[in-house]
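sorry for the late reply, my laptop died twice this morning and i had to redo everyting from scratch. anyway the thing you sent over, i finally got around to it. pasting the sequence first so we're on the same page, its 134 residues, then the predicted structure underneath. double check i copied it right bc i was rushing
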Amino acid sequence: PYACNSCDYRANQLGNLKIHMRIHTDDKPYACDRCDYKTGIQHYLSRHMRIHTGEKRYACDLCDYRTAESGRLNRHRRTHTGEKPHACDFCEYRTSDREDLKRHTRTHTGEKPYACDLCDYRGSVPDRVRRHMR
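ok and here's the structure:
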């Protein structure tokens, strides 16, 4: 296994670790040719391009909601069911979204995996570091 030296991420393949490291370095080699969107993951660019094509191939069977991403449809369905499958190990917090749980858990652990390129500032979410760097 390969371990990230900036957070607790572990990967079975070196390539996956290299892709993960882009979240710490803000390396975004994949760029949209229609707007300013950039990403470190090629699949994310493919998914982003659906914004420009308007393709929304995933539809909710309970309402008119449509989306370009299957994961968003799964999260949306939980608005109908009220399901909150992701539980905090430190408190009673539960959420329907795994990424929300990761962000929440950092309030307990103090983990700040995102770093400013210009100083020693670190943040628990990428947006705070970007805001700091402005």
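Residues 2-52 form a domain with the Double Stranded RNA Binding Domain fold (CATH 3.30.160.60).
thats about all i looked at so far, will dig more tmrw
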